[in-house]
Amino acid sequence: MARRRQIYEGKAKILYEGPEPGTLIQYFKDDATAFNAQKRGTISGKGVINNRISEHIFTALQVIGVPTHFIRRLNMREQLIRQVEIIPIEIVIRNVAAGSLSKRLGIEEGTQLPRTIIEYYYKDDALGDPMIADEHIACFGWATQDEMNDIADMAIRVNDFLSGMFAAIGIRLIDFKLEFGRVWDGDYARVILADEISPDGCRLWDIKTNQKLDKDRFRQDLGGVEEAYQEVARRLGLLQPEDESAVLDFDTHRKKRGR
């Protein structure tokens, strides 16, 4: 396959031009960052695992009527997606106190919240993705009120679905991040789910032991990061024991090709 023009490179993914207008190829990297990229590293096989998990979740969400940018997975690290105009807001859905919420409000990590909280953050790495309110979004025109209503509705629906899906495999969904984008049809735009959903952007704890199965193992130097990502994929039925060697073989072959 001919090498395609790179459109954008982020901390965890690279976007290339797609085979048809209005499409992109999303490539999942093994690079890992934390604390606004102050901490950097590599999680071997992470891109392969995240590609599979995100494909699985986005496909399931489309079945229940949540519109997404996902079209299909192309190979172990790449998927074909619809090109969208990203809304510069990160949506964080919290079910249990953890991370910055615990630090800001002095709530013990692991405390079940009386109700789900939706928080908004302005997507700007240079500013550290500051937390914002609805008034900021309206004032600066980052999204319309109708768009924010759609985003909040979809966020709650995704949370309900994911909470049940993970609970069924013994995982507690603590919190997670979503991004949305606009797709245009003439002068009309609608909002759809974009980016990815994987252990990179979710806090996932084992229900029985509270063992962390997400990127917090990298952030907090807990070790066993690769194994945690693989465990999530395994419980979802996406990774069999014999598949782990296939992931490593694919990475070795990819590096030899200089991809």
Description:
The chain is α+β, with helices and mostly antiparallel strands. It has 2 domains: 6-84 and 225-246, Phosphorylase Kinase, domain 1; 87-206, ATP-grasp fold, B domain (D-amino Acid Aminotransferase, Chain A, domain 1), CATH 3.30.470. It has 7 helices and 14 strands. Strands 8, 9, 10, 11, 12, 13 and 14 form a 7-stranded antiparallel beta sheet that branches. Strand 12 and strand 13 form a beta hairpin. Helix 1 (46-63) runs parallel beside helix 6 (225-235).
Determine the CATH superfamily of the largest domain: ATP-grasp fold, B domain
Low-confidence runs: 252-259
Query: How would you describe the shape?
Result: globular
The SSE string, one letter per element, is EEEEEHEEEEHEEHHEEEHHH
Helix content percent band: 25-40%
Beta-strand content estimate: 25-35%
What fold name stands as the CATH topology of the largest domain? Answer: D-amino Acid Aminotransferase, Chain A, domain 1
Number of strands: 14
Helix-strand makeup class: alpha+beta
Quaternary status: single chain
Number of helices: 7
